[in-house]
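Reply to dn_fold:

You asked what the input looked like. This is it:
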Amino acid sequence: MTARLVLAALAVALCLASVHALNRDFQIDLLGSTFNPSRKFNNDALASIAYDASTQQVYAANAGNNSLDVFDLRDPVHPGFVTSLSLAAYGQRPTAVATANGVLAVTVVADVSTLNGRVVIFDSKLLTVKQSVEVGPYPADVAFTFSNSKILVANSGRANEDYSQDPDGSISVVQLTLNGETVPINVQNLNALESTFKTTSVFFKQFNPKTIDPRIRYYATSVPSDPTLSEDLEPTSIKVSPRSDAVAYIILQSNNAVAEISLVEPFTITQLYGLDSRDFSKSGKGFDGSRGEKTPANETDVEEFKPQGEINIARWPALGLKQPNSFDCFVDAAFVPVCVTANTGTSRSHGQAYTELAQLKNLPLNTTLFPEGIQNITQLGELRVSTLNAYNETNGLVETIYVPGARSFSVLDMASRSELFESGDALEKLIRKSEEDNFNSLADVNDSFDQASIFQGPEPNAVATAVIDSANYFFLTLKQQGGLLMYEAVDASAPVLVGYKNNRDFKNTSLEFAAGDLGPSDVIFVSSAVAPTDDDYVVVANGVSATLTVFRINRLDASPSVPLPSLPSASASTLFSLGSLLLSFLALFLAF
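and this is what came back:
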């Protein structure tokens, strides 16, 4: 009997420990902000950031200045600017940055964007360039593998301005060799005199003759170059599967697609599939697709727009293209890789050669399929929509309304390649509740109430996953509206909003550098395990205001954490609860 009671008590204690860890409340505290003194407003600054624990510095790809900017995070309350290193010798602009083991990698687009770009390798402490490695055309993103054995580069192969050249999209797998042997990429091996990098280019050519997933956006004969599929595909983001070096995931934003690459030699693209569109006609999936004038300039404007100050989140017969700009991944309780996507939306624009977007009011709509008046500007008339695949080839009329961007985030099960969750209209409703007077504002214009509604709304843009107290969380930024959101993802199919913080001063109509953080472009999580202090931090790069801002994730529950066992899964606490449940059943079994 004593053994049974002890076992039952242990099960209860384990359950309580798990509950205590999972129900902690957090608050997002603004700490400090810094910037490059030579910053320029709305100049695509700080496009990508990365943190190095060995130097306690943040590195930023400053596309506007064609430089690598370095910031000091040793005092998170007072982050500081350190230096700026020109990248002009390597190309026209940096696009992404990543760090690992004292090594810093920066991707740079060639001066002629259709030629091969480079990944520039630095010693992150000395800030010296060790090697410059040739990769594919228009490198867009860079990542280290989990074991730091490889650097992966997503080369979008973007077409030139007149669309006369459209290089193949590709993935570059970069490995460090020492005396002919492949070695881990760390600062010691990097500084060895005999070390050198080798690059393997991986293409999508095997998909050219095949019937592709209809959800994939293939521009084909719609654009002047009439590209093959492998030329048309544009990889823009890449992440390694959590806790594994076997596979990496790739987002192809304009193609609304995901790919997978095997990181076992010979490296190959093993999967290519499209993302589901968001059906804006469904309950909980609506959006605001028209702009309202908060202060109309004259009486005639009142008739041309929605009623003054009106927000109209409604269901519409249109499809939102996910087209994620950013994603990040974690492992759920069942050790399944899960990725969170920021469903930003995008379109292709090549001057007079090709423009994908049009206002709905200017298109020949098959009015028999849509509600009366949908092309009025009080409804969706000014909404920017994609013309790709929108027309019925027989009658020449638009019969499907495609909207770039779903104004949401999604949670994807990467094992089954299925969507576990999509946030629907929750983001716009959150803004309506918290910032009603500045709903769907533009990133670079204050006093722009509702003006982003006819474009891509608040524009979820960057995402970073985190493990806090053995539980999964993620952070999301809104490029147009501004702001940082924190979600708990213990149950990946039902994420819970923890908090929202927007360091933007909407009252400052002079804007520029007096309005706080504008246009968040990237976000990273710095855990207490590698941070300068024992706290968890989130660092946000803002492309419009060119500011780097630090937030602390503050635990409102001051009681000490109940330690949970260290597991390779990010959701250790969830597994712990399952173990508790098994112990409970065992206790009941012994009781009989």
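Residues 357 and 530 are 44 Å apart (CA to CA).
Hope that clears it up.
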